[in-house]
Amino acid sequence: MTSSSQDNSCYDVFINFRGVDTRDNFVYLLHDDLKRDGINTFIDEEELLEGEKICPSLLRAIRGSKILIPVFSKRYAESKYCLLELAEIWNCHISDGQTILPIFIDVEPRDVRNQTGSFEGPFQEHQKNSKSTSIVDGWKNALKEVGNLKGWPLKGDANIR
Fold first, then answer.
1. Which end of the chain, N or C, is less surrounded by CB atoms within 10 Å?
2. What positions does the domain TIR occupy (predicted)?
């Protein structure tokens, strides 16, 4: 990690996730365990409503975190906000060297990187409805690159205990 990203760190860990899939089970347990171990962790407590933008403080939290944990789940690709965050996560990894530790809950890494399986339909909808192909191309690249990273596939009721 570069010294500039370490010096500007406001969190040890940023968790990127689709709330409806994982907020009340895996992410809650992960956040609780990290906090208990004294690890300063950011999770977005609010679900963004349609039409809302990712706030600058959320982008600062991504940029200011040492470790970025995307938690991919079956409905992850339905959320353009998850995808926007993921693109920022990938950009930070490339530019500042933050560590990315992907977790795959009931999805295969190949489906993430290729936008197949539960990622295919929602991703096609984003492509069809997007006004900017460059934004969707950025999401596609981030999914491909992060899906290629070594991560942790979990099956069933993902429980970290």
1. C
2. 9-161
Nearest CA among 52, 51, 46, 89 for reference residue 70: 89
- Residue type at 101 in one-letter notation: L
At CA 8, angle to CA 11 and CA 80, rounded to 5? 60
Q: What is the CA radius of gyration of the chain?
A: 15
Contact 112/120 with Cβ under 8 angstroms?
Answer: no
Catalytic-labelled residue, pool 45, 85, 125, 145: 85
